[in-house]
Amino acid sequence: MQDHCIQPIGIVHSCFKEKFAIPRQPALAPAATGEIELFAPYNDPVALEGLEEVSHLWLSFIFHQTLASAHSSINSKPQLRVRPPRLGGNKKVGVFATRSTHRPNALGLSVVKLDGIRNNRLQISGIDLLNGTPLVDIKPYLPYADNVGTAFNYLADQAPELIEVEFTPAALQVVLLHQTRINKPIQALIEQMLAQDPKPAYQKLDLERVYGVKIWDLNVQWQYLSTGNIQVISVDLA
């Protein structure tokens, strides 16, 4: 069997600086934005001709952190069954029935919104991509072919149930200041990201624990409340 070598054509600059709390599917956080930097020769405007007629894109990319972890493991073996977070992290199913990052070739696929092109860089939103993700291909989304009205997936037939996110007054004040500073929808991103409950489903609720994640150049910290809501307690420069 012939081996094939896939070379990245670009890289994704994302609001998500670490894997924890990234939405588990694209489009679940419309405020999650980033841009695609293409490498030569694909950064030529000629390669982008026609994209002004397209609203959404299919992105093929590499799960680079998962791949790095696999390469660093001496006893790394192919994973034929995985524990999807959506099923609580305890139930195993076949790898091809999931969108787990632990794949035979560490390749991912996401639909994102194309917001425009600036300086030959694609401005995208509704992303679920880690900063620095290597991109291997871009294809236009075709509504008449890609939107299958009769499709079903009984393993995950509904979007995740959302929980309420609130801010302490001090945290909200800081968020609004940084939102103006970098001109990004920080409050909406935090709300959309945390409303999907990034905590692993198998992990017991700990009201004393402080969770944190880095987005853009900020560290966001939050706690779970006895009501089941999430409260953002601090937002500081990283």
Question: Which helices and strands, and how do they pair?
Answer:
Blueprint: E1 10-14, E2 33-38, E3 56-62, H1 64-72, E4 81-82, E5 93-94, E6 107-118, E7 121-125, E8 133-140, H2 143-146, E9 165-167, H3 169-182, H4 186-194, E10 211-215, E11 218-224, E12 230-237
Parallel strand pairs: 9-12
Antiparallel strand pairs: 1-2, 1-8, 2-7, 3-6, 3-8, 4-5, 6-7, 10-11, 11-12
Report on this model:
The protein has 238 residues and is of the alpha+beta class. It has two domains: 10-146, Beta Barrel (Elongation Factor Tu (Ef-tu), domain 3), CATH 2.40.30; 165-237, YaeB-like fold. It has helices at 64-72, 143-146, 169-182, 186-194, and strands spanning 10-14, 33-38, 56-62, 81-82, 93-94, 107-118, 121-125, 133-140, 165-167, 211-215, 218-224, 230-237. The chain has a six-stranded antiparallel β-barrel. A four-stranded mixed β-sheet has the order 9-12-11-10. The radius of gyration is 19 Å and the shape is globular.
